[in-house]
Write the structure tokens for this entry.
Amino acid sequence: MSKKQKQQPDGDSEIPAGMLNIEKQIGEYVKRYKQNKQLSQENVDIISSFIEEYLQAFILIGYNYDGEFITHAHSKSPLQSDALNTGLHKFLIKALGRNSLPPGLPHE
């Protein structure tokens, strides 16, 4: 019999209780993470609906209180999407040129 074909006794095939506990904890963590991610996306959608009342197209970039990076872009047409890309490009070029973010804040 080769090493790969060795048979283990029936008693050795049981999963230790500690491993079952770890699997349970990982499962609970994944479940909480999914719920938090869903709540976070729902919050972004709510914020987006408020902003839509005032802006036709926009990009939302930031961090939530948990430190999670949030991005959301809204445009209804390719023309608006292109305008957002151009506006973001201008914003970044100005910021990099002045070596400050956001552009428009005075140099210290």
